[in-house]
Request: fold
Amino acid sequence: MHTTSMNVKDKRVVQGEATRAALIRSARELFGQQGYADTSTDEVVVRAGVTKGALYHHFQGKDDLFRAVFEQVQREVSDQAVAEFLGPDSWVALVKGCELWVCAHLDPSVRRIVMQDARSVLGADEVRAIENRYGAVALRGALRKAIHAGVLEPQPLRPLALLLIGALTEGCFYIAEAPDPDAAQTEVVALITRMLSAFRATAAE
Reply:
Protein backbone atom coordinates (compact mmCIF):
# COMPACT_ATOMS: atom_id res chain seq x y z
CA MET A 1 0.00 0.00 0.00
CA HIS A 2 2.82 2.33 0.89
CA THR A 3 4.65 1.52 -2.34
CA THR A 4 1.47 2.10 -4.36
CA SER A 5 0.95 5.49 -2.71
CA MET A 6 4.54 6.47 -3.50
CA ASN A 7 4.14 5.39 -7.12
CA VAL A 8 0.98 7.46 -7.46
CA LYS A 9 2.73 10.45 -5.90
CA ASP A 10 5.75 10.04 -8.20
CA LYS A 11 3.47 9.81 -11.23
CA ARG A 12 1.72 13.01 -10.22
CA VAL A 13 5.05 14.80 -9.83
CA VAL A 14 6.15 13.66 -13.29
CA GLN A 15 2.82 14.68 -14.79
CA GLY A 16 3.04 18.05 -13.06
CA GLU A 17 6.54 18.65 -14.40
CA ALA A 18 5.41 17.66 -17.90
CA THR A 19 2.44 20.04 -17.72
CA ARG A 20 4.64 22.91 -16.54
CA ALA A 21 7.15 22.22 -19.31
CA ALA A 22 4.37 22.13 -21.91
CA LEU A 23 3.03 25.50 -20.72
CA ILE A 24 6.49 27.10 -20.85
CA ARG A 25 7.19 25.62 -24.29
CA SER A 26 3.86 26.84 -25.70
CA ALA A 27 4.18 30.26 -24.09
CA ARG A 28 7.70 30.64 -25.43
CA GLU A 29 6.54 29.89 -28.97
CA LEU A 30 3.66 32.36 -28.73
CA PHE A 31 5.56 35.11 -26.91
CA GLY A 32 8.38 34.74 -29.43
CA GLN A 33 6.07 34.84 -32.44
CA GLN A 34 3.54 37.50 -31.52
CA GLY A 35 4.74 39.16 -28.33
CA TYR A 36 3.49 39.24 -24.75
CA ALA A 37 0.67 41.74 -25.24
CA ASP A 38 -0.87 39.86 -28.17
CA THR A 39 -0.72 36.45 -26.50
CA SER A 40 -3.64 35.31 -24.32
CA THR A 41 -3.57 32.62 -21.66
CA ASP A 42 -6.33 30.87 -23.61
CA GLU A 43 -3.98 30.51 -26.58
CA VAL A 44 -1.23 29.15 -24.35
CA VAL A 45 -3.35 26.44 -22.74
CA VAL A 46 -4.87 25.38 -26.07
CA ARG A 47 -1.42 25.00 -27.62
CA ALA A 48 -0.12 23.19 -24.53
CA GLY A 49 -3.13 20.86 -24.51
CA VAL A 50 -3.94 21.53 -20.84
CA THR A 51 -6.67 23.27 -18.88
CA LYS A 52 -6.61 26.86 -17.71
CA GLY A 53 -6.75 25.53 -14.17
CA ALA A 54 -3.46 23.76 -14.82
CA LEU A 55 -1.87 27.04 -15.83
CA TYR A 56 -2.96 28.73 -12.61
CA HIS A 57 -1.82 25.71 -10.60
CA HIS A 58 1.76 26.23 -11.83
CA PHE A 59 1.83 30.00 -12.38
CA GLN A 60 0.22 33.01 -10.75
CA GLY A 61 -0.70 34.49 -14.10
CA LYS A 62 0.60 35.45 -17.54
CA ASP A 63 3.41 37.60 -16.18
CA ASP A 64 4.63 34.77 -13.95
CA LEU A 65 4.58 32.44 -16.97
CA PHE A 66 6.55 35.03 -18.96
CA ARG A 67 9.11 35.16 -16.14
CA ALA A 68 9.64 31.41 -16.46
CA VAL A 69 10.03 31.73 -20.23
CA PHE A 70 12.49 34.61 -19.86
CA GLU A 71 14.57 32.64 -17.36
CA GLN A 72 14.61 29.63 -19.68
CA VAL A 73 15.85 31.77 -22.58
CA GLN A 74 18.54 33.36 -20.42
CA ARG A 75 19.64 29.95 -19.15
CA GLU A 76 19.90 28.55 -22.68
CA VAL A 77 21.93 31.51 -23.95
CA SER A 78 24.17 31.25 -20.89
CA ASP A 79 24.66 27.49 -21.37
CA GLN A 80 25.69 28.04 -24.99
CA ALA A 81 28.19 30.72 -23.99
CA VAL A 82 29.57 28.56 -21.17
CA ALA A 83 30.19 25.72 -23.63
CA GLU A 84 32.30 28.18 -25.65
CA PHE A 85 33.97 29.65 -22.54
CA LEU A 86 35.31 26.17 -21.68
CA GLY A 87 37.48 26.05 -24.81
CA PRO A 88 41.19 25.24 -24.34
CA ASP A 89 42.49 28.67 -25.44
CA SER A 90 41.24 31.01 -22.71
CA TRP A 91 41.47 34.16 -24.84
CA VAL A 92 39.70 32.68 -27.86
CA ALA A 93 37.12 31.07 -25.57
CA LEU A 94 36.36 34.39 -23.89
CA VAL A 95 36.02 36.33 -27.14
CA LYS A 96 34.01 33.61 -28.91
CA GLY A 97 31.74 33.16 -25.90
CA CYS A 98 30.94 36.87 -25.84
CA GLU A 99 30.36 36.82 -29.61
CA LEU A 100 28.01 33.86 -29.22
CA TRP A 101 26.12 35.71 -26.47
CA VAL A 102 25.51 38.60 -28.86
CA CYS A 103 24.60 36.36 -31.80
CA ALA A 104 22.09 34.38 -29.72
CA HIS A 105 20.06 37.56 -29.25
CA LEU A 106 19.69 37.96 -33.01
CA ASP A 107 17.18 35.10 -33.09
CA PRO A 108 13.79 36.81 -33.70
CA SER A 109 11.99 35.02 -30.85
CA VAL A 110 14.83 35.66 -28.38
CA ARG A 111 14.95 39.29 -29.48
CA ARG A 112 11.21 39.76 -28.97
CA ILE A 113 11.17 38.10 -25.54
CA VAL A 114 14.43 39.50 -24.16
CA MET A 115 14.91 42.82 -25.93
CA GLN A 116 11.34 43.98 -26.52
CA ASP A 117 9.04 42.60 -23.84
CA ALA A 118 11.02 41.63 -20.75
CA ARG A 119 11.54 45.07 -19.22
CA SER A 120 7.96 46.21 -19.71
CA VAL A 121 6.55 42.97 -18.29
CA LEU A 122 8.94 42.24 -15.43
CA GLY A 123 10.51 45.62 -14.72
CA ALA A 124 14.12 46.68 -15.19
CA ASP A 125 15.31 45.55 -11.74
CA GLU A 126 14.03 41.99 -12.07
CA VAL A 127 15.33 41.65 -15.62
CA ARG A 128 18.74 42.87 -14.50
CA ALA A 129 18.77 40.39 -11.60
CA ILE A 130 17.94 37.47 -13.90
CA GLU A 131 20.43 38.58 -16.56
CA ASN A 132 23.15 38.86 -13.95
CA ARG A 133 22.28 35.47 -12.45
CA TYR A 134 22.85 33.72 -15.74
CA GLY A 135 25.01 36.06 -17.82
CA ALA A 136 27.32 37.71 -15.32
CA VAL A 137 27.95 34.48 -13.40
CA ALA A 138 28.90 32.65 -16.61
CA LEU A 139 31.11 35.52 -17.73
CA ARG A 140 32.77 35.73 -14.33
CA GLY A 141 33.78 32.08 -14.67
CA ALA A 142 35.32 32.74 -18.09
CA LEU A 143 37.21 35.77 -16.78
CA ARG A 144 38.50 33.79 -13.80
CA LYS A 145 39.70 31.05 -16.16
CA ALA A 146 41.50 33.60 -18.37
CA ILE A 147 43.15 35.27 -15.36
CA HIS A 148 44.34 31.93 -13.97
CA ALA A 149 45.76 31.09 -17.40
CA GLY A 150 47.74 34.33 -17.40
CA VAL A 151 45.79 35.66 -20.38
CA LEU A 152 44.24 38.57 -18.48
CA GLU A 153 45.75 40.79 -15.82
CA PRO A 154 44.19 40.11 -12.38
CA GLN A 155 41.05 42.21 -11.97
CA PRO A 156 38.14 42.42 -9.50
CA LEU A 157 35.95 39.76 -11.09
CA ARG A 158 32.44 40.72 -10.02
CA PRO A 159 32.45 44.36 -11.17
CA LEU A 160 34.30 43.45 -14.36
CA ALA A 161 31.73 40.75 -15.21
CA LEU A 162 28.85 43.16 -14.49
CA LEU A 163 30.39 45.88 -16.66
CA LEU A 164 30.97 43.49 -19.53
CA ILE A 165 27.52 41.91 -19.39
CA GLY A 166 26.10 45.44 -19.42
CA ALA A 167 28.14 46.21 -22.54
CA LEU A 168 26.96 42.99 -24.19
CA THR A 169 23.34 43.78 -23.37
CA GLU A 170 23.58 47.30 -24.77
CA GLY A 171 25.31 45.87 -27.83
CA CYS A 172 22.35 43.55 -28.36
CA PHE A 173 19.94 46.51 -28.14
CA TYR A 174 22.04 48.43 -30.64
CA ILE A 175 21.97 45.54 -33.11
CA ALA A 176 18.23 44.97 -32.63
CA GLU A 177 17.47 48.61 -33.48
CA ALA A 178 20.00 48.97 -36.31
CA PRO A 179 18.84 49.25 -39.96
CA ASP A 180 21.65 46.85 -40.91
CA PRO A 181 21.87 44.22 -38.12
CA ASP A 182 24.74 42.33 -39.75
CA ALA A 183 26.93 45.44 -39.94
CA ALA A 184 25.93 46.39 -36.40
CA GLN A 185 26.86 42.91 -35.16
CA THR A 186 30.31 43.20 -36.74
CA GLU A 187 30.79 46.58 -35.06
CA VAL A 188 29.69 45.33 -31.63
CA VAL A 189 31.83 42.17 -31.72
CA ALA A 190 34.88 44.21 -32.76
CA LEU A 191 34.31 46.71 -29.95
CA ILE A 192 33.80 44.01 -27.33
CA THR A 193 37.02 42.32 -28.45
CA ARG A 194 38.85 45.62 -28.21
CA MET A 195 37.45 46.23 -24.73
CA LEU A 196 38.59 42.80 -23.59
CA SER A 197 42.02 43.45 -25.11
CA ALA A 198 42.53 46.27 -22.62
CA PHE A 199 42.71 43.65 -19.86
CA ARG A 200 45.12 41.28 -21.61
CA ALA A 201 48.34 40.43 -19.85
CA THR A 202 51.36 41.83 -21.68
CA ALA A 203 52.97 38.40 -22.01
CA ALA A 204 49.80 37.01 -23.63
CA GLU A 205 49.61 39.61 -26.41
Q: What stands out?
A: The CA atoms of residues 78 and 135 lie 6 Å apart. The chain has a mean pLDDT of 90.
